[in-house]
Design brief:
Elements: H1 6-14, H2 27-37, H3 44-51, E1 54-58, H4 63-72, H5 74-77, E2 82-86, H6 89-101, E3 110-111, H7 113-121, E4 128-132, E5 135-136, E6 139-140, E7 150-151, E8 154-158, E9 161-162, E10 170-171, E11 179-180, E12 183-187, E13 190-191, E14 215-220, H8 224-231, E15 243-248, H9 251-263, E16 270-274, H10 276-280, H11 289-299, E17 307-312, H12 317-320, H13 323-339, E18 347-352, H14 358-378, E19 384-390, H15 396-404, H16 410-415, E20 418-423
Parallel strand pairs: 1-2, 2-4, 3-5, 4-8, 5-9, 7-11, 8-12, 9-13, 12-14, 14-15, 15-16, 16-17, 17-18, 18-19, 19-20
Antiparallel strand pairs: 6-10
Length: about 425
């Protein structure tokens, strides 16, 4: 086996991986890679490179033990490309039960930023970090701040609670200044006290500049980026923000997202917007359109905007009304936003979930058709309108076109501006 070139061994080991399971190893792949690592010494580092490429750590197992493991096995640490830290399964089940019997929920596991930064300093090849349902604490006052930010491709913070309340031992810091990023994803991140409260000492890295993020993905009720903008280093560097994905949890957040677009207006080229959560909260009502118009007005300041992407989804009809009613609310809301889009727009994308029946598809397309007509009339530099259908079978595209064709003027259909795309759900 020693005479087999390492390139051939690597190809053999790579064949054990299942391409349909990106980001984690199913058990059969895990056992196969483990067996490969035991064949001989020349196979071990090649197999470990795949075994430890994506690590998923539960906080209840002890992150200090994980740090000790990394310090004692640098050959493993150098293989890690993606790290995910979340509560254990037992913790999640306790929260689910708490929702049912209305008993108090247990607190999310505490995450000390000093411990996190020590872990990251031992992962030189790390490109993606995912933190879920944690309570981020302050920085110890007697510990120097890091001197160099951590370079990552993607940072994802999911339901992270930032404990800003100052204590004698801990001080609030601008957590985002710890990183240099390509993409920042924030989903329902909150702070433990109001951002209107007074902060006497918010600290940033001594050499910190605004972190770079080419893409921002913000969902739910974000307070972490707002804290960084208003109280920290000023948020991510506006000059590098090209793409923004927005999924507001309520109208207040939507208005703040409009303010965010105004801050980044000279540089944003792509905006993706999903207002389905507002539909679930019952906030896509005509009485709230002034807030929607405020968002649209701020978006109109994006002078370099090239593409606009609307997400079109349905919630359960028995709770949120018939699907046609949901389609009507989304159509009216997106029409308000589209009417304020800058004239530089060159592409409109409309994504729908998998339609259950042809009738459901037809109902949605009847609401989408006016948006297509509105777009072709407003934007002289328009190159294409893409309708994205998330479905298992590509033949749905032909059914989409058959339904859409009689709903549009022949001039638009024949122009070739409409493009259909099927995405595996």
């Amino acid at each position: 086996m020693q005479r087999v070139p390492p390139e051939i061994i690597s190809l053999i080991i790579e064949k054990t991986r299942n391409p349909f399971f990106a980001g984690f190893l199913p058990w059969d792949t895990y056992y196969a890679l483990s067996a490969c690592s035991l064949v001989c010494k020349s196979w071990t580092p090649l197999a470990q490179a795949y075994l430890f490429e994506n690590l998923h750590i539960t906080a209840d197992k002890g992150l200090d033990r994980f740090l000790a493991f990394l310090e004692n096995t640098p050959h493993v640490a150098v293989a890690v490309r993606s790290l995910s830290i979340r509560p254990g399964l037992f913790h999640v089940r306790l929260e689910d039960v708490a929702d049912l019997d209305e008993s108090p929920k247990p607190a999310s596991p505490a995450l000390f930023p000093t411990l996190l930064m020590n872990i990251l300093s031992n992962l030189p090849a790390l490109s993606s970090l995912y933190l879920e349902r944690m309570t981020l604490l302050g920085w110890p006052r007697d510990t120097p701040l890091p001197t160099v930010p951590v370079r990552l491709r993607v940072l994802t913070l999911f339901v992270l609670t930032y404990k800003l309340s100052s204590t004698p031992d801990l001080m609030p810091v601008d957590f985002l200044t710890f990183f240099e990023l390509d993409e920042l994803r924030l989903l329902d991140c909150t702070c433990d006290i109001s951002l209107d409260a007074h902060f006497s000492d918010v600290h940033v890295l001594p050499v910190a500049t605004q972190p770079v993020a080419k893409k921002l993905d913000i969902s739910g009720h974000d307070e972490l980026l707002r804290f960084s903008i208003e109280r920290g280093c000023g948020g991510v560097d506006p000059k590098h923000v090209e793409s923004v994905v927005l999924c507001p949890g309520d109208m207040i957040t939507l208005v703040w997202m409009g303010t965010l677009l105004r801050l980044y207006r000279p540089y944003v080229r792509h905006i993706c917007l999903s207002m389905t959560s507002l539909l679930a909260e019952g906030q896509l009502d005509a009485s709230l359109y002034p807030d929607l118009q405020s968002f649209a007005c701020n978006m109109s300041e994006c002078s370099e905007l090239e593409s606009l992407h609307f997400i079109w989804e349905h919630y359960h009809p028995s709770v949120y009304g018939p699907e046609d009613q949901q389609d009507a609310a989304l159509s009216d809301a997106y029409a308000v936003v589209l009417s304020s889009a800058p004239k530089t727009l060159r592409e409109l994308r409309l994504s729908t979930l998998s339609p259950s029946t042809v009738e459901t598809l037809a109902g949605t397309l009847r609401r989408i058709a006016p948006l297509i007509v509105q777009t072709t009339r407003m934007f002289s530099h328009l190159l294409e309108i893409t309708l994205v259908v998330r479905h298992t079978f590509a033949h749905w595209l032909q059914q989409c076109m058959d339904v859409l064709r009689p709903l549009l003027p022949a001039k638009i259909v024949d122009s070739g501006v409409i493009r259909l795309e099927c995405v595996f759900p």
